[in-house]
Structure formats: C-alpha cells, structure tokens
Design a protein that fits this description.
39% strand; homotrimer; Thiol Ester Dehydrase, Chain A; 251 residues; twelve-stranded antiparallel beta sheet; alpha+beta; 3 helices; HOTDOG_ACOT (chains A, B, C)
Chain lengths: 251, 251, 251
C-alpha cells in the first residue's frame, strides 16, 4: 500500500562539532529497527573540509517514523520487517522501541504547560529571557501530503531556544544537544504555529531551554489549538574567540 | 463563515531606523477599526540588539484587510464589529476609513500610466534610471488560496525602487518611507508580474520613485494584463559611512 | 490551445565573466527559430555595476522548449511559426534544429552509464572525487504543472560538478562552461533525484566533469528509476587571488 513516512520522534542528539560555510555535508542513513507500525532510522552526519580533505563527525541522530497511508492519512500502515544480521540487534532495537514508547507517553501527559508573558521581568529570571514566535505554514514548509516537515519545526524550535539563551547570557551561544523531540500530532498546511521557549535550568557551563510548539488549525477547521511538539535544548555560551564562557545563574 | 484576509492597502510608512543582521525583530499587531467589509490593523516593529538589550522602533504601519469567503473568493464577508474603549476611537477610525476609501478611488483613476523604454537616455533623466523586472508567481509566493502575498509584491516593488534610486545617484541608497500602497486587484498564482519604477521627483535630500505592478494572468485565463498595485517610495542617498548625501537633481 | 513550455535542451554555454553580489542582472530573451513542435530561445545576460554604471556580458545561452498541452501534459502542441527578417535566418535556424535533434538522440543512446562507489580511492583518480547528492522535489522546485524547473536541476548539477572539481584540486574552482544539457524526460513533483558527477578529463588548465540526474518517481507511481538529464561541465582551478592554477592530472 503506497504510504508516506511521518516523523514521530527524534532521540537525544549531540552536536559534536560545528559545520562551517563552504564545507560539504555527508548525510547517511539506515533502518536499524522496525516495529509493527514504526521504523527506526540511524542518521550520521560528517563535515568535509574540501580544501584539506579533513572529515569530522558533526552529529548522529536516531529518528522514528510512522508510515501513513497515501489514501487515508489517518491510517497507519503496517511495516514490512527487516532482516537483522544478529539476533541481539533485534532485541536491542525492541528495547529502544519500548523505551521511547514509554517516554512519548510521559511527555504527552505533562504537556499542559503554557508560557505566560511577564511584565517588567528582572534580568536572569525565567520571564526575562522567555521568547516566542509565530509562523504561518506555507507550501514550502510542507510535504506533498500537506503536513509540515519535521525539519522545519525543529529549525524554528532551535531559533527560539537560541534567542532565549542569547537574551539570558548576552553573548554568542551555540546548541550543544537536543533532548528527545516528540511529535505528538501532525500539523497541517495553513496552520499558524506558536513556538515558545523558556530557560528551565542553568549549570556553570550550560543552559537548558524548554520549547513548545502549539498549532492553531486553519480557519476552516473546527479543531482547537493543540500542543504539537515539545523538547529540551542545551546551549553553551561562547566568547568572541569561540571559547566557552560561564553561564549567569537563573534566578 | 470561514474566510481569508486579503491585503487591500498599506498606509504611508516611515522607516525610522535600520534592522541589523543578528537583531531580533518584535512584530506586534492589533485591530484598531472595523467597517462593514474591512479591518484596520496597526503593526509595530521593534528591533532588539540581543547582546546589549537595546530596543528601537524601526517602523509602524497601518494595513487594511478585506475578508474573502473561502468558498467563493470573489465574495466579501461581513466583519463582526469590535468594541472600542472610547467613543472617539470609533469616530477617528471611521474618519481614517473614509479618507483611505477616497484615496483608493483617486489612485485607481490615474492608474493608466505606462513606462516606456527610452533609447540612449542622458544621465539624471527619468529614462536613464527607470527599471523593471518580471517575476513568475510560484507556489512559495502565494497564500493557500493561490493569490500572491502582499509582502512578496511589496518586497519586489522596493527592490525595483532601490535599483532606480541607485542608478540615479550611483551611491548606496536606503528606503526612507513608502507612501500608501493600494492593492487594486488580486493577483493569481501562475501570473507573470512586471514591476516598473521611475523617478518622479528629487529634492536636495531625497528621491521619490513611482512603482507600478502589472499582472499578466496565466496562459489559461482569458483576462488581459491589468494594473494590480501602485505606490510611491522615498529614498535617500548614503555615503559609505552611512551619512546622507545630496541627491543629483532630476533633469 | 493553452500550453506550458517544457525545457528540452540548453546549448553549450560559456561563462565569460562573473556576476558579483550587489550587481544588477539584465536578462533578455527572444525567439530565434520555431520548428513544428519546438521553440529556440536566445538569452543574453549582462551584469551592471550600479555604482560605476559598467555593464559586461556574463553569458549567452540558447534554450529549446517544447510546448505541452495544459489539459494533457503528455501531448505536444503545434508551434505557430515566427516571421524571419531574412530567409537565411530560417535556414540557419533549421540547421541548428537538425543538429541538436541528432545530438539529443546520440546522448540518449549512451546514457546507460552508472557511477559506482569506490572503496579507499587514491587521490586524483576518478573514484576519489566522484560525488552525488539526493534531493526530494518539493513545491518550490516545480512549475504550476508539477514538474521540476530546468533551472533547479541545472543549479544542483553545477553544485555537484563544483564539489567534484574542488575535491580533485583542493582549491577554489569556478564553472567555465557547460556543454549541451539534454532534458530527456520530465521529472514530477515528489520524485527523489540523484545527481552524480565524475571527472572525465583534465587538461593543464581545466577539468571536464560528467553529471547525471536520475529520478525515482514518488512512491505512488509504478514507474522505475530513469535517467532524466545529463551534461558535461568544464571547471577551472583558481588561486586565492582569482588567478588560474594548473590542474592536477587525472590518474
């Protein structure tokens, strides 16, 4: 049955090394586990400095996709099982599958949180750096089935998290890692999404920022606003020379 | 009745301060008046230098929208009235509404003008700096209903006006203000638009450039080319240090 | 009958001069020949340095289009003949038409070649610099009929050729010319295209790189992967000052 893959979850991802302008990105991907209704894909990203030939791993990521029927986008299609080279690979995959399933459920339950504006907030408080942006999902943001690309949402989430981090530190900041991102619900073309971020924790060396994506369906739809995605980003503060700086503590 | 807002007019807008790379733009908007078939929206734009925390008003704009039925895009829907805090707000709004209505009518009447190419024009004449560009309206330029975004048209108009100004002055130039922009007619996806600009006036300190947008409907349509938008832009000439320079007079 | 023009072929194109950031591009085009089912268009590109007024020809190109019916995209429409100023223009046009027709046929026949990955290739061998990228054709890549714009494909082909050239030379490289590009088959929105390039020849001063575009139709289609486009690019190697450098010989 013809189908399309919807991104359901991205596992925790570390950004090990920056990718620079003029470098060539090598992205490779393979299926590492299949459950009845989902596919685990392992992606590796290398940067290649084309003038020196030097290659570096910039990040690795694990993504879970769910196949949706092309004819009925609300129907999840069955996944043909893959063959494993060794029995342990299947067992380890099943363990990862069960763990992420549990985590998705838990994330969904504590997802009622809303970020309210704060009047005249003090520097280094949560209210001072919290930020949000809104975006109308146009044709270029969406797949052929008319749902937003997961990558478009993740880019906007990282943008908001970066603004929160920079407002807190007043320095250059860079993404160190992203905790698991759960895509709870599809978002349809024409929706307006609100991406909100707030500082949730600081250590001496890094900041944790929680980001929510809420979707308001297009005017034509009877549906209410809903929480579509949520995740935690970790940022570090950098000097102009690119050295890590201490992070001001959250009050 | 489900509807979509079509941009009908942007009031005169001053650009008070530049927005720089790396700054965060704050855009806020509220409805300030409703007539039976239109909505006035006041938009404020602030720039925030995230490292210093400094905020500046970069511009304010007033936009008029007309709600069109989703089922029949040629039908204008009735606007539910808003509640005003004070009676004077409604009276002032009605005055603004009547004024813009009159101005739209007048603009439409003097809209027959066409810009013809000039062979071997002398420097500093109208023919020397006049410019035009053509653009095929693709999916990314359009709303979900398949009509061009007003912002796409305005960006192209500013681009043409900037080329006219730079050709006249041979310096860096910057938009100081835009006079009221009237969107006389919708423009459909697949249309080819021609954006033409010519210098209409110079003072010692600034230049006025008139810009027209003409639309040729897609091959499949029986409609003729029509004037869709027109506006006047004011530009100033800048030295490399960003100081205002005198403008060569139009011959 | 309403129709849309599909790009069938671009003749050999020389890039005479670079186009710089901030310059204005002047693109003019005219029909120079019509056969029963195709149109030859001559395009000239000038760069204008707006501050000095200097204009330079950056390149000229000849493109062949085939008109397809809007109602049935597999039907080629008849072209109304143009009037020629002189009889020789028609004769010369017919000669160009016959030549390109022959060349298209020949290119199609030798198009079975595939680029295989090489394990641990030696520097300056074909396998060392060969490169490929994949791209999902989204709405912004396509015309209103849902087929990819020729320009999108050509840009990606040039990108791959540039990576091949830079990997071979480990220097800055620039496109000097593109040999005739034949668009053998349309590519539909939703297809995944693989663009592959390999070094085919080096002289002391330049490199020739062959680029293939293979299309995998969207999951819903029964069609197999097919070769959609192929072309040869010529690149030169440049020093940091922009002077031509000798090219390492292909082993």
């Amino acid at each position: 049955e013809p189908c399309v893959a919807a991104l359901a979850r991205v596992e925790r991802t570390d950004f090990l090394s920056p990718m620079c302008i003029g470098e060539v990105a090598h992205v490779s991907a393979e299926i590492t586990y299949t459950s009845k209704h989902s596919v685990e894909v392992q992606v590796n990203v290398l940067s290649e400095n084309i003038l020196t030939g030097a290659k570096k791993v910039t990040n690795k990521a694990t993504l879970w996709y769910v196949p949706l029927s092309l004819k009925n986008v609300n129907k999840v299609v069955e996944v043909p099982p893959i063959q494993y080279a060794r029995k342990e690979q299947e067992d380890e995959g099943r363990k990862r599958y069960e763990e992420q399933k549990l985590d998705r459920l838990e994330t969904k339950q504590r997802n009622g949180d809303v970020i309210f504006p704060v009047i005249n907030p003090e520097p280094h408080t949560v209210g001072y750096s919290q930020s949000s942006l809104i975006h109308l999902l146009g044709p270029s943001d969406c797949t052929l089935l008319g749902f937003v690309h997961g990558g478009v949402t993740m880019k906007l989430m990282d943008e908001v998290a970066g603004i929160v981090a920079a407002r807190h530190c007043k320095t250059n900041v860079v993404t160190a890692s992203v905790d698991a991102i759960n895509f709870h619900e599809k978002i349809k073309k024409g929706s307006v999404i609100t991406i909100s971020g707030r500082m949730t924790f600081t250590s001496n060396k890094s900041m944790e920022i929680e980001v929510f994506v809420d979707a308001d369906p297009f005017v034509d739809e009877p549906q209410e606003r809903y929480r579509a995605v949520s995740a935690f980003f970790t940022y570090v503060s950098l000097s102009k020379e690119g050295k890590p700086l201490p992070v001001p503590q959250l009050l």
